[in-house]
Amino acid sequence: MNCPSCQTKSKVIGIKSSKNSIYRMRACSNCDKKFNSIEKLLLKNITVIKRDGRRENFDENKIHKSLVVATSKRPIPSNAIDAVIQDIIETINNSEKNEVTSRLISKMVISHLSRLDLIAYVRYASSYQDFISINEMSRELEALSSNPEYQQEQQQLFSENYI
């Protein structure tokens, strides 16, 4: 790969790999500038079928934006959000289908959020799930909050002194 500054050949001085990408640290042999390059696994062309029947190309940025809104001001590290997105992308990419419904994507996000943070779950579900009434949403929350599996994974907001 050529240096972005002087267009001379660069050499790899370090490599880090993750699940679907490789990060290469490079140094220019001419100007000694250091820079990084990323190799990512290309996703197959996936079409999302919207609720109204429209079709559009899959865009992981839409999932990211909705997760950022849902987890805003919550004690959730950005790498947890990235892991959720990566898992959803892998699930979709590993399926044999080239089309996925927006409803299925929403269910995958909700499944992750219900284990990650119940407040973020409520924020997301209130926008993306078809709750008919506040009672229906209340029943869903009651079912989640009474499930010990979800309570163990939730972060504690207050110390025992405040409860």
Biggest beta sheet attributes: 3 strands, antiparallel
In whole angstroms, the N-to-C terminal distance is 58 Å
Per DSSP, the total helix count is 6
- Average pLDDT score: 84
Radius of gyration: 21 Å
Helix/strand class: alpha+beta
Strand order of the largest sheet: 1-2-3
How many beta-strand runs? 6
**SSE string, helices as H and strands as E:** EEEEEHHEHHHH
Shape: elongated
In terms of DSSP E residues, the strand content is 15-25%
Number of domains: 2
Give a structural overview:
There is one protein chain. This protein is α+β, with helices and mostly antiparallel strands and 163 residues long. It folds into 2 domains: 10-40, no CATH class; 47-153. It has helices at 60-70, 78-94, 102-116, 118-128, 134-145, 148-153; strands at residues 10-17, 21-28, 34-40, 47-49, 55-57, 99-101. The protein has a 3-stranded antiparallel β-sheet, with no helix packed on it. The protein has a 3-stranded mixed β-sheet with strand order 5-4-6. Helix 1 (60-70) packs across helix 4, helix 2 (78-94) packs antiparallel against helix 3 and helix 3 packs antiparallel against helix 4. The relative contact order is 0.10.
Task: Describe, in short, the structure shown.
The protein has helices at 60-70, 78-94, 102-116, 118-128, 134-145, 148-153, and strands spanning 10-17, 21-28, 34-40, 47-49, 55-57, 99-101. With 163 residues, the chain is of the alpha+beta class.
